[in-house]
Design a protein that fits this description.
Radius of gyration: 20 Å
Oligomer: single chain
Structural class: mainly alpha
Strand content: under 5%
Helix content: over 70%
Largest sheet: none
Distance between the termini: 66 Å
Shape: globular
Protein backbone atom coordinates (compact mmCIF):
# COMPACT_ATOMS: atom_id res chain seq x y z
CA UNK A 1 0.00 0.00 0.00
CA UNK A 2 1.32 3.44 -0.97
CA UNK A 3 2.03 5.83 1.95
CA UNK A 4 -0.70 8.26 0.84
CA UNK A 5 -3.19 5.38 0.60
CA UNK A 6 -2.27 4.20 4.09
CA UNK A 7 -2.80 7.67 5.53
CA UNK A 8 -6.36 7.77 4.20
CA UNK A 9 -7.30 4.09 4.42
CA UNK A 10 -10.41 2.87 6.22
CA UNK A 11 -8.37 -0.05 7.55
CA UNK A 12 -6.93 2.02 10.40
CA UNK A 13 -10.37 3.15 11.53
CA UNK A 14 -11.71 -0.41 11.22
CA UNK A 15 -8.80 -1.71 13.33
CA UNK A 16 -9.51 0.71 16.19
CA UNK A 17 -13.23 0.10 15.87
CA UNK A 18 -12.68 -3.65 16.25
CA UNK A 19 -10.44 -3.37 19.33
CA UNK A 20 -12.69 -0.83 21.03
CA UNK A 21 -14.08 -1.39 24.53
CA UNK A 22 -16.52 0.68 26.64
CA UNK A 23 -13.62 1.79 28.85
CA UNK A 24 -11.50 2.92 25.89
CA UNK A 25 -14.53 4.69 24.40
CA UNK A 26 -14.92 6.75 27.57
CA UNK A 27 -11.17 7.36 27.89
CA UNK A 28 -10.74 8.63 24.34
CA UNK A 29 -13.90 10.74 24.50
CA UNK A 30 -12.42 12.47 27.56
CA UNK A 31 -9.09 12.96 25.76
CA UNK A 32 -10.76 14.37 22.66
CA UNK A 33 -12.73 16.83 24.80
CA UNK A 34 -9.50 17.90 26.52
CA UNK A 35 -8.19 18.82 23.07
CA UNK A 36 -11.10 21.13 22.26
CA UNK A 37 -10.76 24.88 21.73
CA UNK A 38 -12.58 25.92 24.95
CA UNK A 39 -10.16 23.80 27.01
CA UNK A 40 -7.13 25.35 25.32
CA UNK A 41 -8.62 28.81 25.83
CA UNK A 42 -8.93 27.94 29.50
CA UNK A 43 -5.29 26.73 29.67
CA UNK A 44 -4.06 29.90 27.95
CA UNK A 45 -6.17 31.92 30.40
CA UNK A 46 -4.37 30.20 33.29
CA UNK A 47 -1.07 31.32 31.74
CA UNK A 48 -2.50 34.84 31.43
CA UNK A 49 -3.63 34.94 35.07
CA UNK A 50 -0.86 33.04 36.82
CA UNK A 51 2.33 33.18 34.78
CA UNK A 52 2.78 35.85 32.12
CA UNK A 53 0.09 38.19 30.77
CA UNK A 54 1.74 38.78 27.42
CA UNK A 55 2.48 35.13 26.82
CA UNK A 56 -1.09 34.26 27.81
CA UNK A 57 -2.76 36.70 25.42
CA UNK A 58 -0.48 35.64 22.58
CA UNK A 59 -1.24 31.97 23.27
CA UNK A 60 -4.94 32.82 23.08
CA UNK A 61 -4.45 34.34 19.64
CA UNK A 62 -2.42 31.32 18.49
CA UNK A 63 -5.36 29.11 19.50
CA UNK A 64 -7.82 31.34 17.66
CA UNK A 65 -5.78 31.55 14.47
CA UNK A 66 -5.18 27.79 14.55
CA UNK A 67 -8.94 27.26 14.78
CA UNK A 68 -9.43 29.74 11.93
CA UNK A 69 -6.99 27.87 9.68
CA UNK A 70 -9.04 24.72 10.29
CA UNK A 71 -12.24 26.60 9.39
CA UNK A 72 -10.69 27.73 6.10
CA UNK A 73 -8.89 24.52 5.20
CA UNK A 74 -11.66 21.96 5.74
CA UNK A 75 -14.05 23.22 3.02
CA UNK A 76 -11.10 24.19 0.82
CA UNK A 77 -9.82 20.61 0.66
CA UNK A 78 -13.30 19.07 1.00
CA UNK A 79 -11.96 15.67 2.05
CA UNK A 80 -14.38 13.23 3.72
CA UNK A 81 -14.08 11.60 7.11
CA UNK A 82 -14.04 7.81 7.58
CA UNK A 83 -17.42 6.09 6.97
CA UNK A 84 -20.09 7.17 9.45
CA UNK A 85 -20.66 3.64 10.78
CA UNK A 86 -17.14 3.83 12.30
CA UNK A 87 -17.86 7.09 14.18
CA UNK A 88 -18.13 6.83 17.96
CA UNK A 89 -19.03 10.52 18.23
CA UNK A 90 -21.00 12.84 15.96
CA UNK A 91 -19.02 14.88 13.42
CA UNK A 92 -20.57 16.31 10.27
CA UNK A 93 -18.01 18.56 8.57
CA UNK A 94 -15.02 17.68 6.38
CA UNK A 95 -12.10 15.72 7.77
CA UNK A 96 -8.85 17.27 6.51
CA UNK A 97 -7.09 18.72 8.39
CA UNK A 98 -8.01 17.63 11.92
CA UNK A 99 -9.02 20.72 13.88
CA UNK A 100 -8.14 19.08 17.20
CA UNK A 101 -4.65 18.17 16.00
CA UNK A 102 -4.21 21.62 14.46
CA UNK A 103 -5.18 23.58 17.57
CA UNK A 104 -3.22 21.24 19.87
CA UNK A 105 -0.09 21.51 17.69
CA UNK A 106 -0.50 25.26 17.35
CA UNK A 107 -0.74 25.82 21.09
CA UNK A 108 1.98 23.42 22.21
CA UNK A 109 4.21 24.32 19.28
CA UNK A 110 4.04 27.99 20.23
CA UNK A 111 4.74 27.20 23.89
CA UNK A 112 7.73 25.11 22.84
CA UNK A 113 9.11 27.84 20.55
CA UNK A 114 8.52 30.50 23.21
CA UNK A 115 9.72 28.79 26.40
CA UNK A 116 12.30 26.43 24.84
CA UNK A 117 11.95 23.96 27.71
CA UNK A 118 12.43 20.24 27.11
CA UNK A 119 9.69 19.53 29.66
CA UNK A 120 7.20 21.71 27.78
CA UNK A 121 8.18 20.14 24.45
CA UNK A 122 7.80 16.58 25.80
CA UNK A 123 4.50 17.40 27.56
CA UNK A 124 3.22 19.06 24.40
CA UNK A 125 4.24 16.14 22.19
CA UNK A 126 2.43 13.70 24.51
CA UNK A 127 -0.68 15.91 24.60
CA UNK A 128 -0.80 16.25 20.81
CA UNK A 129 -0.26 12.50 20.36
CA UNK A 130 -3.05 11.53 22.79
CA UNK A 131 -5.56 14.03 21.39
CA UNK A 132 -4.69 12.93 17.83
CA UNK A 133 -4.96 9.25 18.72
CA UNK A 134 -8.36 9.88 20.27
CA UNK A 135 -9.64 11.29 16.97
CA UNK A 136 -8.48 8.19 15.08
CA UNK A 137 -9.81 5.79 17.73
CA UNK A 138 -13.21 7.50 17.72
CA UNK A 139 -13.38 6.92 13.98
CA UNK A 140 -13.74 10.55 12.89
CA UNK A 141 -10.30 11.06 11.31
CA UNK A 142 -7.82 9.28 9.10
CA UNK A 143 -4.11 9.37 10.05
CA UNK A 144 -3.62 11.72 7.11
CA UNK A 145 -6.04 14.22 8.65
CA UNK A 146 -3.91 14.17 11.81
CA UNK A 147 -0.64 14.65 9.91
CA UNK A 148 -2.16 17.60 8.05
CA UNK A 149 -3.43 19.11 11.29
CA UNK A 150 -0.03 18.82 12.97
CA UNK A 151 1.78 20.36 9.99
CA UNK A 152 -0.66 23.27 9.76
CA UNK A 153 -0.61 23.78 13.54
CA UNK A 154 3.18 23.88 13.82
CA UNK A 155 3.28 26.25 10.85
CA UNK A 156 0.85 28.63 12.59
CA UNK A 157 2.91 28.40 15.79
CA UNK A 158 6.20 29.10 13.99
CA UNK A 159 4.86 32.02 11.95
CA UNK A 160 3.23 33.56 15.03
CA UNK A 161 6.41 33.14 17.08
CA UNK A 162 8.53 34.76 14.38
CA UNK A 163 6.09 37.58 13.67
CA UNK A 164 4.73 38.41 17.14
CA UNK A 165 7.33 41.07 17.98
CA UNK A 166 6.76 43.04 14.78
CA UNK A 167 2.97 42.70 14.92
CA UNK A 168 2.84 43.73 18.58
CA UNK A 169 5.12 46.72 17.94
CA UNK A 170 2.93 47.87 15.03
CA UNK A 171 -0.26 47.43 17.06
CA UNK A 172 1.13 49.36 20.05
CA UNK A 173 1.79 52.38 17.81
CA UNK A 174 -1.91 52.75 17.01
CA UNK A 175 -4.14 55.15 18.91
CA UNK A 176 -6.84 53.94 21.32
CA UNK A 177 -9.72 54.12 18.83
CA UNK A 178 -7.81 52.26 16.13
CA UNK A 179 -6.92 49.47 18.55
CA UNK A 180 -10.57 48.92 19.46
CA UNK A 181 -11.59 49.01 15.81
CA UNK A 182 -8.97 46.36 14.99
CA UNK A 183 -10.09 44.20 17.93
CA UNK A 184 -13.70 44.32 16.71
CA UNK A 185 -13.41 44.36 12.92
CA UNK A 186 -10.51 41.91 12.42
CA UNK A 187 -12.56 38.89 13.55
CA UNK A 188 -15.55 40.23 11.62
CA UNK A 189 -13.50 40.38 8.41
CA UNK A 190 -12.01 36.92 9.02
CA UNK A 191 -15.49 35.44 9.52
CA UNK A 192 -16.73 37.08 6.31
CA UNK A 193 -13.73 35.67 4.40
CA UNK A 194 -14.43 32.18 5.75
CA UNK A 195 -18.12 32.51 4.82
CA UNK A 196 -17.20 33.07 1.15
CA UNK A 197 -16.68 29.32 0.90
CA UNK A 198 -20.36 28.75 1.65
CA UNK A 199 -23.05 29.75 4.10
CA UNK A 200 -22.12 31.15 7.49
CA UNK A 201 -21.84 28.24 9.94
CA UNK A 202 -22.00 27.96 13.71
CA UNK A 203 -18.24 27.47 14.16
CA UNK A 204 -17.44 30.64 12.20
CA UNK A 205 -19.78 32.73 14.36
CA UNK A 206 -18.31 31.22 17.54
CA UNK A 207 -14.79 32.03 16.32
CA UNK A 208 -15.73 35.65 15.60
CA UNK A 209 -17.42 36.11 18.98
CA UNK A 210 -14.59 34.69 21.07
CA UNK A 211 -11.88 36.55 19.14
CA UNK A 212 -13.70 39.89 19.36
CA UNK A 213 -14.51 39.45 23.05
CA UNK A 214 -10.90 38.57 23.89
CA UNK A 215 -9.55 41.48 21.85
CA UNK A 216 -11.87 44.09 23.36
CA UNK A 217 -11.60 42.58 26.84
CA UNK A 218 -7.80 42.65 26.77
CA UNK A 219 -7.73 46.29 25.66
CA UNK A 220 -10.06 47.17 28.54
CA UNK A 221 -7.88 45.20 30.96
CA UNK A 222 -4.77 47.05 29.74
CA UNK A 223 -6.56 50.38 30.09
CA UNK A 224 -8.45 49.90 33.36
CA UNK A 225 -6.67 47.17 35.35
CA UNK A 226 -3.27 46.01 34.05
CA UNK A 227 -2.89 43.54 36.89
CA UNK A 228 0.68 42.36 37.68
CA UNK A 229 2.03 38.85 37.18
CA UNK A 230 2.04 36.59 40.23
CA UNK A 231 4.76 37.16 42.84
CA UNK A 232 4.57 33.89 44.77
CA UNK A 233 3.10 30.38 44.75
CA UNK A 234 0.26 31.28 47.14
CA UNK A 235 -0.94 34.07 44.84
CA UNK A 236 -0.65 31.75 41.83
CA UNK A 237 -2.80 29.06 43.46
CA UNK A 238 -5.39 31.59 44.61
CA UNK A 239 -5.69 33.10 41.13
CA UNK A 240 -5.97 29.68 39.51
CA UNK A 241 -8.75 28.61 41.90
CA UNK A 242 -10.70 31.86 41.53
CA UNK A 243 -10.38 31.76 37.73
CA UNK A 244 -11.44 28.10 37.59
CA UNK A 245 -14.53 28.80 39.69
CA UNK A 246 -15.58 31.85 37.65
CA UNK A 247 -15.01 30.44 34.17
CA UNK A 248 -16.23 26.99 35.15
CA UNK A 249 -19.47 28.42 36.52
CA UNK A 250 -20.05 30.58 33.44
CA UNK A 251 -19.37 27.63 31.15
CA UNK A 252 -21.67 25.21 33.00
CA UNK A 253 -24.54 27.70 33.30
CA UNK A 254 -24.25 28.63 29.61
CA UNK A 255 -24.12 24.95 28.60
CA UNK A 256 -27.27 24.18 30.59
CA UNK A 257 -29.13 27.23 29.28
CA UNK A 258 -28.07 26.43 25.69
CA UNK A 259 -30.03 23.18 25.93
CA UNK A 260 -33.17 25.29 26.41
CA UNK A 261 -32.15 28.38 24.45
CA UNK A 262 -29.61 27.55 21.68
CA UNK A 263 -28.53 31.20 21.49
CA UNK A 264 -26.67 30.70 24.79
CA UNK A 265 -24.10 28.66 22.86
CA UNK A 266 -22.94 31.94 21.32
CA UNK A 267 -23.31 33.88 24.57
CA UNK A 268 -21.06 31.27 26.20
CA UNK A 269 -18.24 32.07 23.77
CA UNK A 270 -18.66 35.80 24.37
CA UNK A 271 -18.53 35.29 28.13
CA UNK A 272 -15.64 32.83 27.91
CA UNK A 273 -13.48 35.29 25.96
CA UNK A 274 -14.37 38.50 27.79
CA UNK A 275 -14.32 36.98 31.28
CA UNK A 276 -10.94 35.30 30.81
CA UNK A 277 -9.10 38.56 30.05
CA UNK A 278 -11.18 41.20 31.87
CA UNK A 279 -13.71 39.94 34.43
CA UNK A 280 -11.40 37.45 36.15
CA UNK A 281 -8.45 39.93 36.32
CA UNK A 282 -10.87 42.52 37.73
CA UNK A 283 -11.84 40.09 40.49
CA UNK A 284 -8.14 39.42 41.18
CA UNK A 285 -7.55 43.14 41.59
CA UNK A 286 -10.46 43.50 44.00
CA UNK A 287 -9.34 40.53 46.08
CA UNK A 288 -5.64 41.26 46.13
CA UNK A 289 -5.42 44.93 46.90
CA UNK A 290 -8.95 46.22 47.37
CA UNK A 291 -8.50 48.88 44.70
CA UNK A 292 -11.76 50.17 43.30
CA UNK A 293 -12.44 49.90 39.60
CA UNK A 294 -10.99 52.97 37.99
Amino acid sequence: MEPIQFLFSDNTSIFFHDIGTPFLDILFKVLTNLGSEPVYIFIASLIFWCYDRRMGIRALYVIMFSAYVALLAKPLFGMPRPPEYLHKITENDFGFPSGHALVSSGFWGYMGFRIKSSRIIIAGAIAVFLVSLSRIYLGVHYPGDIVGGVVFGLTVAFLFYKGETGITSLFEKQDRTTKYLIAFFLPTILVLIASLQGELVKEQIEFGLVMASIGVGYLLEEEKIKFPDTKNKKQLIKRALVGIVILGTLFLVSEILSLIYPVFTYIMYLLLGFSSVFVVPLVFTKLENGNKYR
